[in-house]
Automatic annotation (TrEMBL):
Source organism: Thalassovita autumnalis
Claim: Transmembrane is one of the keywords in the record: yes
InterPro entries: Phage_phiNM3_A0EWY4
Superkingdom of this protein's organism: Bacteria
Name listed for the protein in its UniProt record: DUF1523 domain-containing protein
Keywords noted in UniProt: Membrane, Transmembrane, Transmembrane helix
Annotated TM spans: 148-169
Length: 215
């Protein structure tokens, strides 16, 4: 039972951490190398793609998607998709996909004359599943070592921790006041019933022994 409890906690913690890591905004400092548009046929990974651009027809089969290619200061390559989130989830309320694509194209640079930019995005990159993070905004950076403090993430995680702690404290008080006494009464009743059954079996055994001794 203890192992099941800890397994449940680990799974729950993994889901919570994964949810926040995917949803909360992240900032990458990189160099835009190219921008392009590609027709995507959605398959099993369709859950990791956003909806059609706001105002366009909704389709779940295929559509054109903008992409932004970039390189980190360590020369590692990253590819971002550029899709509207609209009024859906995550709540970034992004409606300016075309404008963002134009901004990213204007910030393209070469390795000889790099123009470093800050790309704000959410999501993951997975080559095996063809998953791309979704770029939310792009701006010029002061340099490859620009320091970015994720204040929004800090505030959201702090509020989540405060709400979780408040719920946990109230649940613990409720359990101690209402559930634990009931469980104790059930345990005491079970022990009393076990003792009574054992005593009855003992009396029956003594009666049988006395009856056998009379023979």
């Amino acid at each position: 039972m203890v192992y099941l409890k800890w397994a449940f906690r680990v799974v729950l913690l993994t889901l919570v951490v994964g949810f926040f890591h995917y949803t909360l905004p992240q900032h990458d400092i990189a160099r835009v190398t190219d921008t392009y548009e590609k027709r995507i046929d959605f398959g099993e990974n369709s859950i990791f793609w956003a909806a059609s651009d706001s105002g366009n027809a909704t389709t779940t089969v295929n559509r054109d998607v903008f992409f932004i290619q970039a390189k980190y200061p360590n020369d590692r390559v990253m590819v971002y998709r550029n899709e509207d989130t609209g009024w859906g989830w995550p709540p970034y309320f992004k409606f300016d996909t075309s404008n963002l694509q134009a901004e990213a194209a204007d910030l393209k640079s070469s390795a000889d004359a790099p123009q470093w930019v800050v790309i704000k995005h959410y999501g993951w990159r997975n080559e095996f599943l063809s998953i791309f993070p979704n770029a939310v905004s792009v701006r010029a950076a002061t340099g490859p070592d620009e320091r970015i403090i994720p204040w929004l993430n800090i505030v959201i995680l702090t509020l989540f921790a405060a709400v979780f702690w408040a719920i946990y404290v109230r649940w613990r008080r409720f359990r101690q006041a209402r559930i634990d006494p009931v469980l104790e009464d059930i345990g005491e009743g079970y022990d009393a019933a076990s003792d009574a059954l054992a005593d009855r079996r003992g009396r029956v055994g003594r009666w049988l022994d006395s009856w056998r001794s009379k023979k």
